């Protein structure tokens, strides 16, 4: 019995060894799902006999490889436990969540003394196909027949191919066609006509059905309620946005061109001159310091007594006669005595200019 087992192992070893380096297979992986890399039964037997094996894969550098796992006499070291899982029962390697970058060439290497044998696996990763949608590109009505052009497309998926079939399972069905476009002609009374579009790739497939109805663009596949909702909601949202923008621009334009409200009230400011006398100081001769005068402005609440204001005009109150300070000569006496008057009033300044109407300055003559 023992000799028979040994002979079987030798024959198996020779068969595998005869394959030579470069023997490979292709494994299809689905994006986002687990992928298992299996090895042939012969390699499993040799691994149990010699007890040394290694999982590797290619890298971007053609001169280097990435070691994923080492197996030796029942023990193993996994260098990427969060990404790969090793099944010690059959020595297979499972990729937990397949990614695009996992599409590499993997190698399972069995070592015997100074020699090694390699089993290569080329992993190809595909994104699964989403459920397709059928659109009516054109239609024409003539002689009680409807001719439509249908387009079947899938939003997601790698290397997607399309095929059309009839649900009545007849080879002569008008729906039989390969490709995403289908030119279909049917009689209007053929309300039971149904065509199925299948989108597929090497790892997945999905189908949708088209049912004939009135000859118009309203014909849709059974998988297009989302598209119908979008076709209804999007135009409404666009119209509401345009209305909002137009209203905002119009309001802004009106606000920009609206003149400020005019103030129809007429305000009159009267002034009162108050002389401040210095006690016991005689009138100084010309050229010396004069008694100071203070001008006080106050907002008028009405017209001054005995003053009539013409409509549309602003009148100022008559200037009060300024009494001559004690011990000082009036202006006429100053002129008679030959003192210069400098051409300005001495005791009663003129009415304040308009830009001083809002404040009460204090000045000295």
UniProtKB/TrEMBL annotation:
Residues 304-365 are annotated as: Disordered. It comes from the Eukaryota. Residues 1-18 form the signal peptide. It is found in: Membrane. Keywords: Glycoprotein, Membrane, Signal, Transmembrane, Transmembrane helix. Its main location: membrane. The keyword Membrane applies. The chain crosses the membrane at residues 229-249. The keyword Magnesium does not apply. GO terms for cellular component: membrane. This is Signaling lymphocytic activation molecule. It comes from Cairina moschata.
